[in-house]
Amino acid sequence: xxxxxxxxxxWSSRYRFSQGSEGDAMDVKxxxxxxxxxxxxxxxxxAKNTAIERILVVCDQAAGDNIRxxxxxxxxxxxxxxxxxxxxxxxxxxxxxxxxxxxxxxLVETPVDxxxxxxxxxxxxxVNLGSLSFDATRxxxxxxxxxxxxxxxxxxxxxxxxxxxxYRKVSSDPKRDLWKLLCDKGLVKDKLDxxx
Length: 196
What we know:
Elements: H1 5-14, E1 27-34, H2 40-49, E2 54-58, H3 60-63, H4 66-74, E3 81-85, H5 87-94, E4 103-108, H6 111-119, E5 126-131, E6 139-140, E7 146-147, H7 149-160, E8 164-167, H8 178-184
Parallel strand pairs: 1-4, 1-5, 2-3, 2-4, 5-8
Antiparallel strand pairs: 6-7
Helix pairs in contact: 6-7
């Protein structure tokens, strides 16, 4: 069902936008939401077409799981290093001047983690959604994307910051407007004001 105005207000007050931070040192070529994180499409397509040097997998659960962390690092495409980080560590690194020349692809598992990064000061003009796995809390809106209320609230928060939302599997696919899709599914209103 459509998210309520009251819920939106609570969400907005919880996640304040760190617009006054010193800004990013890293050159974020792509911020992608993908419940599978690093897999073939990312390693062979997005990494090549975004001309990045490193892939940063930002996921608190994966960073705390040594087996999962090792598997993600082993999936690195040739010549590109993969690092698995917590959200808090990523926010420290992205503002560190020592990393200002790094061209990176940032992968997160959920819209909420993307929102946490942006709220913490990560600079990006667009967010790409690859896939979100179905579970008991989520509703399918495409063949590969399922969302719940938290996902929709996080995406609405991101859009209010003027950040483009698109969904596509690989870079050669045409850009599709994720916000329009959510509107068409009746999950959000077409226009958002600050209080929604």
